[in-house]
Amino acid sequence: MIGSESKVTQFVVYDFDPHNLPPEYLRAIGLVVASSAQTEHVLQDFIGALLGIDNIQTVALTSQMSFPLKNDIIGALAELDAPNINELDKIDDLLEAASKAMDKRNIVAHNNFMRNPDTGQVYSHRLRAKGSIKLDLKPISVVEIQQIAEEIYKAGMDIMSFMISRKLESRVRTAPMRETINRGKRAREERCPKAKDE
Hints:
3-stranded antiparallel sheet; about 200 residues
């Protein structure tokens, strides 16, 4: 048709392979994951300190806990023994900061990264389904990811500093640990053949 303009839609086939992300992105993403693990470990120690149990008992109790559960348990335990409301407010502020930081971790840990093979631009592919489905495709920079890592790290270090200032720490276990025991059903039956027949 004379006078009309032809528009050509350009389709981009994004590269989802994490091996093809630039090295600086992989390093920043790794820093987020490592900082998250460290901050979760600090929360784990906080629970052990508040309960007055040793470090191995703390691991046995908390290793399967999610971050939100650890956060909630610390809040509940602190409420039982905090000397005053100001101390409890301080703990709540620290836990809230950690929770916000770890929410940002989810942007990195639970969403795909993709690269535009033509431009090299890296995007975060965020899919949320809380109440309704929302899909976001947003450019993300190395600096943004590094800032998330730093916020997570700082949240954990602030909690650790608080614990040190209050002399809160889980005891180091001195009793020797027994060797790992096979506690599966077949092993139990072999140890106690009578139980198998009953």
